[in-house]
Amino acid sequence: HADLTQSQRNHALMGFKQGKFQIMVATDIAARGLDVKKLSHVINYNVPEKTEDYVHRIGRTGRHFEVGDAYTLVSPDEERLIAAIERFIGRKIPRAQVPDFPYHALPLPAKPKTMAERFGRHRRFIPRGRFGRR
Q1: DSSP 26
Q2: DSSP 8-state class, residue 44
Q3: SS3 70
């Protein structure tokens, strides 16, 4: 986590490796550099944009000839990413819905339609420069 010092990160990782902590939450960058034996579960809170990142993340459960489970939480707008991962790995990824979860009660966020809505500002005029006309 960006708000932790390197010493605090090392302490957290060692505590996890030694079994003092049962759960570790890691950013995508941190997850790539962690070597943890006997990792039983990986839960992807978001679908990785790059197919190779998905394989890298879930492969952590199979290190050192161990077996584990990998779960990925997927929203409807991320289905295209899952389809790309399936093409990359050459197999279908099983899907399941959590029983009794109130999916209908959760409104999907509205997607911004314009660049101004996306970035919260209006387009500005860019004067002509030496790199071309605008």
Answers
A1: -
A2: E
A3: strand
Both tokens of residue 2? 């960006």
119 to each of 15, 43, 46, 61, 122, how far by Cα in Å?
A: 40, 30, 21, 38, 8
* 34 in Cβ contact with 13 (< 8 Å): yes
Distance CA 17, CA 3 (A): 21
CA distance 75 to 7: 36
What phi, psi does 72 have (nearest 5°)? -130, 125
pLDDT 10s digits, 68-122: 888 888 888 889 999 999 999 899 989 888 888 887 776 666 666 666 666 555 5
Q: Give backbone dihedrals phi and psi of 31, rounded to 5 degrees, phi first.
A: -65, -30
**Interatomic CA distance for residues 73 and 98, integer angstroms:** 11
Contact between 29 and 55 under an 8 Å Cβ cutoff? The reply is no
DSSP 63: G
Most distant CA atoms of the chain, gap in Å: 61
